[in-house]
């Protein structure tokens, strides 16, 4: 169950960071609310995962999921470009997260 919490925490982090892009200097209330609730949910799920998974592993997996998720959203939604080196290094993050899960 702890790894499901990590996944949920990472997804909430991605949602919150997307909302952060739309805040526009705190002028828009809905993205602020989404961002706030999303980060609270993300930290809640992360704290639940840390009950069963070592803190360093849980945090590394959470950060990795968020990083990869935001990179994917940036490419698909915001038409950001990714070069081959960026792809390789993001892939290494993915390998690391999967490796952490397999080693737990």
Fold topology:
Elements: H1 2-22, H2 29-49, H3 55-76, H4 84-103
Helix pairs in contact: 1-2, 1-3, 3-4
> How many domain regions?
1
Low-confidence residue ranges: none
Mean pLDDT across the residues is 96
Tell me about the largest β-sheet. none
Question: Which sequence of SSEs, written as H and E, runs from N to C?
Answer: HHHH
- Number of distinct helices: 4
| Structural class by SSE content | mainly alpha
Radius of gyration: 15 Å
Percent helix: over 70%
| Beginning-to-end CA distance, first to last residue | 12 Å
Protein name: Small multidrug resistance protein
Family: Belongs to the drug/metabolite transporter (DMT) superfamily. Small multidrug resistance (SMR) (TC 2.A.7.1) family.
Organism: Pelosinus fermentans JBW45
Membrane topology: Multi-pass membrane protein
Describe the protein's architecture and organization.
The chain is mainly alpha-helical and 104 residues long. It has one domain (2-103). 81% of the residues lie in helices and 0% in strands. It contains 4 helices and no strands. The chain has helices at residues 2-22, 29-49, 55-76, 84-103. Helix 1 runs antiparallel to helix 2 (29-49), helix 1 (2-22) packs across helix 3 (55-76) and helix 3 (55-76) runs antiparallel to helix 4 (84-103). The longest helix has 22 residues, at 55-76. The protein is flat and about 45 Å long.
